[in-house]
Amino acid sequence: MNDPASKPPFDPSIQVSPNNPCPFLRGLVGGGFVDGDTVPLGKLSETIANASGETGLKKAFARLQVRGVALIANGLGHILKSIFSGAQLDALRGGPLDKLGAGSRILGVDGKVNEGEIKRLESFGRTYPDPNGGGTEPGLNAAEIQTFMRDNLKRAGSAGRWYYPLLMKFEWPILLKIIGKGEGENRYLGVADVRTLFNARQFPVRINQRLVSQPVPSTCQRVALGAAKLLALLVAIGLAILVAVAEFPNQVRAMLPQKGILVNLLPPPLPKLPETTAAFWLEQNWSLKDRHWFHHASQGTATFPVPYDWFMALEQPRLHLFSRPGMMKDSAYLERYGFIPSPQSIQTDTTTLRRYGYANVYETTQASDWSTRWTPAENVDGLPVGFARMTGVTDPATGRREQDKIGLTCAACHTGQIHYKGIDVRFDGGPAMTDLKKLELSTGLSIAYTLYVPFRFQRFADRVLGPEASKSDRDALKQQLSAIGNFLIDWAKNYGKTIEGKKTWDGKQQQDTEEGFGRLDALNRIGNQVFSQDFALSGVKGFEKNLHAQDAPVSYPAIWTVPWFKFAQYDASIEQPLIRNAGEALGVTALLNLSDAYPEDRIWRSSVHVPTLGWIEEMLRGPDPFKAAAPEFGGLLSPKWPSQILGDAWKIDQKKAENGRKIYEEMCAGCHLPAVNTPAFWSSTHWEPSGDSKVLNAVTIPTDEIKTDPEQSLVLGNRTVDVPGFLKVNTADLKTWWQCDGSTASSPTEMSYALGLMTVVDLVARKWMDDDKIPDAERAKIWNLARKNCPNPAPGPRYRARPLNGIWATAPYLHNGSVPSLYWLLKPASERPQKFCMGRRDYDPVTVGFAVTTDERCKTGETQFSTTGPDGKPLQGNSVLGHSFERKPGEPRRPGVIGREFKSDDERYELIEYLKTL
Fold first, then answer.
1. For a Cys staple, 660 with which of 515, 681, 890, 911, CB 3.0–4.6 Å?
2. Nearest partner of 553 among 880, 876, 884, 881, judged by Cα
3. What are φ and ψ of residue 748, in 5° steps?
4. Where are the strands (E) in 76-231, listed by range?
5. Considering the entire predicted model, what is its pTM?
6. How far apart are CA 556 and CA 495, in angstroms?
7. Could you give the CA distance from residue 95 to residue 227 in angstroms, rounded to a whole number?
8. Where are the alpha helices (DSSP H) in 99-190?
9. What average pLDDT does this structure show over 644-650?
10. Strands 387-390 and 189-190
11. Residue 556 · residue 544 · CB < 8 Å
12. If you ran DSSP here, which 8-state letter would residue 558 be given?
């Protein structure tokens, strides 16, 4: 039953408020179809749905869309008023739907039309045949409208807001849908109709007829519709939430409690990739082949919890309403985690090599290849630096052939780059600026989305099995993926529950310290992997108790010249190179059998590829520097300050540098030794005999003296681990194998983390040698027996002071990455920044590191280093104190202060200028 008398009159002379900036709503008001002030949401949604010409479910969906948008049109503070009274069309200016100059700018704030902007709109289109009146007319199709909207945003610059792209989906595209002409790809929005709509506030006659001819619901129909309003409201809210989660996950995530289930259902925010105009790899005495081999040679790790082909088939953990998400494997996506792009092969054209920074920009003679003697490394899928495919995989427990795995290499953490005004400068052996925690979370979430988001598993199975795969094969694949997903969920729960019940060394509640871009708690992660998760993966239960919070993050250490140091790691804890490297491989999730459910001779079998670890060490180490006419390092050299690439701001002031050299000799050389290119360095008493050569026993300083954050130095000594008795982990074997003088564990099942890890990694390496029947002479060469697997005999926790060659390329500074630049490192510790942001940000050649401003706010996706948590309490592992220059004349030495105060900033910058040259 309809009431024709209730139809609105058509009166185009009605005035429209300039505070209604929406062209379509202005047409509705100007035509008399709705009032110019407050319009009930039901009437507004019904009228616009009528104008769309849709019927049935499509019309109902159109009503829901309009109601959802109109609900927030006057701002979040007016939602209740909108629900009960309606949308205020004369108060839209300045509201959430007003793009404040980031739109077309056709309509001014005074309600006047800018004909020049209509001409600009027309310039984005072309001429179309008019299907209604014949002839041709200018117009824009959907793609041209999108280009027009993108240009509007580009023109707005910083005035644009994150939600404007969503608003634009409800403006010009809807105009095209309602008053456009033609069908499909040929449907276009006529410029003449747009001009009429803005100037006369009139719709084309065909739209007016559509609106007038639509029946208005009778009273009884309104009662029936009223019952559906609440449901419609709930659906609209649900739709708004879905759109928000899909289009703006970072903003939604920020509004949720940061502890709990909901926040973990959304991917961690990632920084946008700035535009790169050029990239350069610095020369470091490696050939291009060696460099690419190092970036992608598998060390036997399966870091990611799915096979290689499955990872290639996973989609990014994003919800998309109108398109499919990208793939996890996409290099541009992985670069947002801090990884460096890498070509599929260096056997390609020069243009491609230059795009990746691999061309020899110096046009000098290349170093001879090392890697051509070894197993080739491929990157056929164009993954970033640090990703490797492990082929020929055998399950260490069952001996069954496994699918290829995907893991991270040494290069994932020890390849660095800096950014400066659109130029990327890259170098091997430096600290990576990656955030592995975010990648870890996103991979797990991608698996969950594949299992539970509609249509995703179907696409995943098509990629893995092929589109013709049977239902039974698909079911089996889903069951396997579900088992992996369930393990990850259960493991995360067990980790959280275990950590909640543990205390730190000083009696505080254990909790993770955010690692963020450029930092990783490597020691605690290795311990959690080897002494807990590897047991769980081997089916041995009960060793979740070995877990420890990741609360001692450190900056990835530079690894150039490290093979010639007696002790590696910040805490000078490891002397034996193979143990150092194999321990790292186990920590990055090499396959390892720790189960007694199989024959005893399979225990300690692993996928660690010992030969590759040896080849990497050989490439890093290079020839014996003492066998040359004049001692000098070979192998991987530290990168040189890139002044020849980056222009005048990077030119070294030689006079300042010479002054800085004298300051270095006075204040730095006592611990960090003279520069490596001086005779004084090579004649230092810190060089000790080692076999038929020497190693550098660098200065180590007790934490009580240096007073930098002690957490990393305490991990190996203070943490204890349990192991099952059937493994027969006897730490006294270290004395037998290596003639170590230190203490051993009194229990065969409980021991310090340091002794336990050294023994376990030793057993893994020996098992590989036994299985491969390596002759004794070859074993001695692999082990380099002069380098013992014994604890450092130095008493108490301490940190190593390494030579400062390449120091400019290792920001942020101190072992825990707590100081953003050399400038702040040379300031008194109490004056250093307490917070700063990390991610893909520009390098500062003046302060040498990252420029920090007071109270700087991190951009979306960046991580914040902070000395304190939200509660104002100090964060474990994040102290910025120690290594301070503040001793006044005549003042005695005191802990934490290593040098005199600088006379002025000029003196600091002189030392910095010299440090650039090292």
1. 911
2. 876
3. -75, -10
4. 87-88, 126-129, 136-140, 189-190
5. 0.79
6. 24
7. 30
8. 115-123, 142-156, 164-168, 172-179
9. 91
10. unpaired
11. no
12. P
